[in-house]
Amino acid sequence: ATAAASPPPEPPPPAERPSGLEGRRARRRAVSVGVNYLGLGCQLSGCIDDSETMVALLRRDFGYELSDVRQLRDDSPRAMPTRRNILAALQWLATGAREGDELFFHYSGHGSQQADADGDELDGRDETIVPCDYQTGGMLSDDELRRVLVAGLPRGVRLTVVLDCCHSGTALDLAYRVALREGGLVDIRKRLPHQLPRPSPAEVVLISGCRDDQTSADIGAGAAGNAQPAGAMTTAFQAVISRRPGASHHALISEMRAFLRARGFAQVPQLSSEHFLDLTAPFLPGPAAVAAGAAPAPAQPLRPPVRKALTVGINYLCLPPGQGRLSGCVNDSDTVISVLKRTFGFQDAQICRLRDDDPRALPTRANLLAAFRWLTEGAAPGDEMFLHYSGHGGQQRDADGDEAGGQDDTLIPCDFQAAGQIADDELRARLVEGLPRGCRLWVVLDCCHSGTALDLRFKVQPSPDGRSMQCKKRSRRRLHGGMKGPDAVKADIIMISGCKDSQTSADVQAGSMGASKAAGAMTTAFHHTISPSISCEDLLLSLRRFLRQNGYSQVPQMSSEQFLQLDCSFVAYSAQGGTASGGGPGAGPGPLPGAPAAAAA
Q1: Is 290 exposed, middle or buried (0-12, 13-18, 19+ CB in 10 A)?
Q2: pLDDT at position 223
Q3: Which element (helix H / strand E) includes 587?
Q4: HSE (side-chain half, CA atoms, 13 Å) at 23
Q5: Which of 33, 90, 198, 571 makes the best surface tag, with the fewest CB within 10 Å?
Q6: Judging by DSSP bridges, how do beta strands 28-34 and 507-508 pair with one another?
């Protein structure tokens, strides 16, 4: 094996924690382990060089200092990767971690499997890493790695793990696993509840060299641009990250797989996480990632956060009964006002409504557009806005070529016969495109053909068993024709719609589904399932289950402008996975042409 010219310095002792921690700055720590099994029959040749590569990468591109890093390698008697030393290094890495800390663990060596000790593995096998003294000291199982590395980490800590070894796909028993599909689709699959260990509140991400049933290969010197022997996975990782330090999780795993596939390797690197992962975020946050394009923090608003809500109910009382008139949409508006006040904490003065049983608040095309302008105009970081619409939805010929089916989805005002409909392109322009980073918009649409009514960038599709979510990003050619690019809008925007673009949304008659009055099926389902703590994933699954159990074929949809954080609370939704600021009383709405200033209780 080819090793470094000189052994590394003695690893630094664990840092002493001061007695007062309130003012401690966020810290970085990293452990890298390279095991060549020198003198053993299972000797490898590239693992020590992998460790050298990773330490150099962390220091050069991600701002780690030498004192931040511990390295174990079996060409140095002072830093041998024995079972005991690996456990001590991992305890040094994780002990005392606090919110804001960034931790990194890299391992290159043998990986193996052994009998599952606690019944949490479908295949009956625990995955292991193999210390240099495994013959006398034993291996380290995934259960033990999780206990030492993951279980004790608090919320706000980021742990990144890179494992270049065989059988490493689920080596930390994390809850979510990412699967890439053809056509840009991504499946994010969650382990069955009985297989899940106690969850950690920390952000933990693992990229591993192969599936649990695969082996990870070595690369000879010079075979892939590497001067020394190396692991195929570490070489692929280094090639992508060196070229693109700010690469997203999705870009990294995709390009690593392409790198290995192009060089004839069968192993398939895996990506998993403890919580639902934003695949568009940088895999390795740090100075280089910021320089590569991380956006600055939103500007601080010059006023307190504002909350506004608009609810629209249109029964089309201008139409004859049986010829397009509806019966439950105005009632839906009343229902949503109660939800806004009870569950979202809105106050009467923050809610405006349009309804066609009140001549002062008619939902004409002009009044709808004016209401949309009131809802979003002047939005600043920290503001929260909510839009609910119950009425007819339609379709018309696509005007700008951004729809795969050639049809724009529309909302239908009460005066549509004279004034026309409102297409999704106009809805997006009025509601989405002017919103700044740091504000939040919820949209709930109970109407036909509403699946992509705001042309948001991301949508999700649950699997039939509810265990995985397929995430898809709209293609560039279909992204809102005149926009300057797919990243133009950074606000937190999430939409629930009553059905697919190809479907209709049904009404519920009084006495059905627990409704005391006529109502929309989607709004009724929303009213029954929404709660302050329900996650986006559980809300979508609950809406679909509620409608299915009551005999409705429509399939509610969920989409967002940023990558959808499905394990985040819908009520406290944030594309960053936390809760945004705001949520307190804000300025009441200004006057709307033909509409009341606030909703009745």
Answers
A1: middle
A2: 65
A3: none
A4: 3
A5: 198
A6: unpaired
Give me the residues paired with residue 443 across strands.
Answer: 387, 495
Q: What is d(CA 199, CA 516) in angstroms, rounded to the nearest whole number? A: 41
Residue of 165, 166, 471, 536 marked catalytic: 166
* Residue 40 CB partners (closer than 8 Å, separation 6+): 132
- C-alpha to C-alpha distance for 392 and 394, rounded to whole angstroms: 7
Between 3.50.30.10, 3.20.20.210, 3.30.200.20, 3.40.50.12660, what CATH number should domain 28-290 receive? Answer: 3.40.50.12660
Say which residues have a Cβ less than 8 Å from residue 580's Cβ, sequence separation at least 6: 382, 384, 438, 439, 440, 492, 572, 573, 574
Hey, what amino acid is at 411?
L
* Separation of alpha carbons 260 and 252, rounded Å: 12
User: Coil, strand or helix: which one is 461?
Assistant: strand
Distance CA 119, CA 240 (A): 37
Q: Where are the beta strands (DSSP E) in 516-594?
A: 519-520, 557-560
Say yes or no: domain 307-474+490-501+517-560 is CATH 3.40.50.12660: yes
**What is the percent of the chain where pLDDT is above 70?**
83
27: nearest Cα among 127, 103, 126, 140:
103
Helix, strand or coil for residue 468? strand
Q: What angle do CA 596, 598, 601 make, to 5 degrees?
A: 120
Higher pLDDT, 196 or 262: 262
For β-strands 111-115 and 102-108, DSSP reports them as unpaired
Domain ranges of the chain: 28-290, 307-474+490-501+517-560
Report residue 574 as tokens.
């944030």
Q: For the CA atoms of the chain, what is the radius of gyration?
A: 27
Who wins on pLDDT, 409 or 487?
A: 409
439 is catalytic: no
- Cα 256 to the chain's mean position, in Å? 21
DSSP 69-86: EEEEETT-GGG---HHHH
Find the range with the poorest average confidence among 221-225, 260-264, 292-296, 435-439. Answer: 292-296
Q: Are 471 and 188 in contact (CB under 8 A)?
A: yes
The answer to which of 268-277, 288-297, 434-443 has the lowest mean pLDDT is 288-297
What predicted TM-score, i.e. pTM, was given to this entire model?
0.78
**C-alpha to C-alpha distance for 534 and 530, rounded to whole angstroms:** 7
What contacts 306, CB < 8 A, 6 or more positions away?
379, 380, 383, 384, 582, 586, 587
Sign of CA dihedral 190, 193, 198, 199: positive
Distance from the Cα of residue 193 to its chain's centroid: 20
Question: What's the confidence (pLDDT) of residue 199?
Answer: 86
Whether the predicted pLDDT of 586 surpasses 80: no
Residue of 110, 275, 392, 449 marked catalytic: 110
- For position 485, what pLDDT does the model report? 41
Rounded to 5 degrees, what are φ and ψ at 228? -120, 165
Q: Is residue 580 classed as helix, strand or coil in its secondary structure?
A: coil
Strand order, beta sheet including 407-411? 393-397, 407-411, 422-423
Looking up tokens 């919820």 gives 442
- Are the C-beta atoms of residues 354 and 361 closer than 8 Å to each other? yes
**Best-predicted range by mean pLDDT among 390-404, 463-477, 585-599?**
390-404
